[in-house]
Design a protein that fits this description.
250 residues; 73% helix; mainly alpha; globular
Length: 250
């Protein structure tokens, strides 16, 4: 894995040395800074550079939107998310991406509406079904989340969301069984395990798995600061310490 990361960085750096104005290379550099370096400020600068060079590229605009949301700059994030949809109205990824940003900002009804536009483009969109499941859980509608979860074809996400929904329904044995299923994917899904323990208000286990997610360079750590599913951890002093470890502002 380390060798693969090194080769990826070498390739992006070489592309930028040949053409410093290559927007795609700046997007990939931003991803590397996020996923490998936890350099969120540097990644944000890379995405901003990309959209200044190629403002009509929906991918660059989406990445800039996600980056703004990660810092809690939600007005900017939503504006960029809508711009990505306008640039390519037939791209379901832009629809669910906008919906996720709105979910993180607590705009749940609007998030569901924008997500469902993605389903019109791709009824099998796993991203949209994940989004709708999360929205229904946040709205206190776990029963409505169940049919959405059933349509998610990623086993780790499906197990995670079942564990959350069953807990919300008071079906603790079923929640434990879903968590046991999720544990099969622990090498790549630590952040999903964190979400379950946080949602079930088991902070010691949640922080144990946050450390594992950090060691794995789990991609979903981007959202640690702003994900409402982790809200039960916010008042624990370990949460501020973990944000500092991640180089995220508290």
């Amino acid at each position: 894995m380390e060798e693969g990361r090194r080769l990826a960085r070498d390739a992006v750096e070489r592309a930028l040395s040949l053409n410093p104005n290559l927007a795609k290379a700046h997007i990939e550099m931003g991803r590397l800074k996020q996923q490998i370096d936890f350099d969120w400020v540097g990644a944000d600068a890379s995405f901003q550079r990309a959209i200044s060079l190629e403002p009509g590229n929906p991918e660059g605009v989406r990445m800039a939107a996600w980056s703004a949301a990660m810092f809690g700059r939600f007005d900017e994030a939503v504006q960029l998310g809508r711009r990505a949809v306008d640039l390519d109205p037939l791209d379901e990824e832009s629809c669910w991406s906008l919906g996720q940003i709105e979910r993180l900002n607590g705009q749940l009804d609007q998030a569901a509406a924008d997500g469902k536009k993605g389903l019109e483009l791709d009824p099998d969109s796993a991203g949209v079904h994940i989004l709708l499941s999360q929205i229904y859980l946040m709205q206190g509608r776990p029963q409505d989340a169940l049919p959405e979860i059933e349509r998610i074809h990623y086993p780790s996400y499906r197990a995670c969301l079942y564990a959350l929904a069953y807990h919300a329904l008071g079906w603790e044995k079923d929640s434990d069984a879903a968590l046991s299923e999720l544990m099969k994917y622990h090498a790549s899904s630590a952040s999903e395990i964190v979400a379950v323990y946080a949602f079930r208000n088991q902070p010691d286990k949640a922080f144990e798995w946050l450390d594992r997610a950090y060691a794995q360079h789990d991609l979903n750590l981007n959202w640690t600061k702003v994900d409402p599913l982790l809200r039960n951890l916010h008042n624990d002093p370990r949460f501020a310490a973990f944000l500092k470890k991640l180089n995220l502002p508290n």
